[in-house]
Automatic annotation (TrEMBL):
Keyword RNA-binding: no
Protein name from the UniProt record: alpha-1,2-Mannosidase
Pathway named in the protein's UniProt entry: Protein modification; protein glycosylation
Family statement: Belongs to the glycosyl hydrolase 47 family.
Species per Swiss-Prot/TrEMBL record: Equus przewalskii
Gene3D superfamilies found in the cross-reference section: 1.50.10.10
Length: 452
């Protein structure tokens, strides 16, 4: 699958951000401004892990010759961080090739002007040439987004580690401080925070889009620090406890789901993005408060089951962007604009963690169902395409092969069918784009065992 996705990208869209597999041409999302090569950088570590050595070398050459950050247009700080900074760091730690470290640090420095706000909470969008930032015009009251400014921590800690420049770690540590000093409604973190006033915007809370990876990075900061970052651990378990109290519910047929919290009222909808949380709960179970380990493993398993149901209840056996639990429906998308599947990884990500942590064979079975569905419904001559409606028997292609399909979806699937000693979880942390970062020991060194 990786060969098919990569070869077609190379044939029809080389050097551009993404591939349009039906039109057989390049696709450029505005998220990357005029930075090019998103698929190349996102795929580097997957190519390496799958031992696709020739492809890795040609990707490395492209990075060396062509990856250029001196671009005028605005970029999403979050997307560029998780895909480009994360992809370069991961490629460096796996291969030891200096070019990747150099490019990662160079890009990190280019992102620093985003933090020039009264609070140090960064802007969502940055013009990397002028250094001028702003927020998404649709965001509540000029706010920055929790999942965006909360998903820089892992990469920026590693940028300081690899460059010897403390500025990166200082920027993300300050974000933590701002959050800790704020009053949380019912212990929950709203999705919107104004970077000028330092106050919350709308009281909307989500473990899906706009919130998701903030919680993931609290847990992973704790794990990546060699379990030294006690503040992250405390913030994670307190947040998860509030989420359980106020947002996790069971449907009438016993499916556990995570709703959206809006000023005290629940919207009984769960996004595909939220499905990552099963793996997160399970990954954090070992360090849970006394007597809670089994509870969190069980919660992870229940979320995995719900997300599997969202896949199983469609025609193509791949899940919709969002599914609902109201008006008699369960785990089904009821709105046309929520029926699409864009090759997202979150469900197989949860299967991967559940497989590694429990070895229950059903997770391999479910993962193989996803493989077969991707082959039957998303594979086309020119690569892999997302679908506009997973409930339709005829394919409705969206004509985009997302870079995260190569970075995440295929990597997690590959790991489910590999032995546990390929990238053991005690030595490696996955960033939210499935890029690999080594656990740092207390002395700031990478943990033993990464050599494998």
């Amino acid at each position: 699958m990786m060969k098919h996705a990569w070869n077609n990208y190379k044939r029809y869209a080389w050097g551009l951000n993404e591939l349009k597999p039906i039109s057989k041409e390049g696709h450029s999302s505005s998220l990357f401004g005029s930075i090019k090569g998103a698929t190349i950088v996102d795929a580097l570590d997957t190519l390496f892990i799958m031992q696709m050595k020739d492809e890795f070398e040609e990707a490395k050459e492209w990075v060396k010759q062509n990856l250029d950050f001196n671009v005028k247009a605005e970029v999403s700080v979050f997307e560029v961080n998780i895909r480009f900074v994360g992809g370069l760091l991961s490629a460096y730690y796996l291969s030891g090739e200096e070019i990747f470290r150099k490019k990662a640090v160079e890009l990190g420095l280019k992102l620093l002007p985003a933090f020039h706000t009264p609070t140090g909470i960064p802007w969502a969008l940055l013009n990397m040439k002028s250094g001028i930032g702003r927020n998404w015009p649709w965001a509540s009251g000029g706010s920055s987004i929790l999942a965006e400014f909360g998903t820089l921590h892992l990469e920026f800690i590693h940028l300081s580690h690899l460059s010897g420049n403390p500025v990166f770690a200082e920027k993300v540590t300050n974000i933590r401080t701002v959050l800790n000093n704020l009053e949380k409604p019912q212990g929950l973190y709203p999705n919107y925070l104004n970077p000028s006033s330092g106050q919350w915007g709308q009281y909307h809370v989500s473990v899906g889009g706009l919130g998701d990876s903030f919680y993931e990075y609290l847990l992973k900061s704790w794990l990546m620090s060699g379990k030294k970052d006690l503040e992250a651990k405390k913030m994670y378990f307190e947040a998860v406890q509030a989420i359980e109290t106020h947002m996790i519910r069971k449907s009438s047929t016993g499916l556990t789901y995570i709703a959206e919290w809006k000023g005290g009222l629940l919207e009984h909808k769960m996004g595909h993005l939220t499905c990552f949380a099963g793996g997160m709960f399970a990954l954090g179970a070992d360090d849970a408060p006394p007597g809670m380990t089994q509870h969190y493993l069980q919660l992870g398993a229940e979320i995995a089951r719900t997300c599997h149901e969202s896949y199983n209840r469609t025609f193509v056996k791949l899940g919709p962007e969002a599914f609902r639990f109201d008006g008699g429906v369960e785990a089904i998308a009821t709105r046309q604009n929520e029926k699409y599947y864009i090759l997202r990884p979150e469900v197989v990500e949860t299967y991967m963690y559940m497989w590694r942590l429990t070895h229950d064979p059903k997770y391999r079975k479910w993962a193989w169902e996803a493989v077969e569905a991707l082959e039957n419904h998303c594979r086309v001559n020119g690569g892999y395409s997302g679908l506009r409606d997973v409930y339709l028997s005829r394919e409705s292609y969206d004509d985009v092969q997302q870079s995260f399909f190569l970075a995440e979806t295929l990597k997690y699937l590959y790991l489910i069918f590999s032995d546990d000693d390929l990238l053991p979880l005690e030595h490696w942390i996955f960033n939210t784009e499935a890029h690999l970062l080594p656990v740092l020991c207390s002395d700031g060194k990478e943990s033993e065992g990464n050599e494998q």
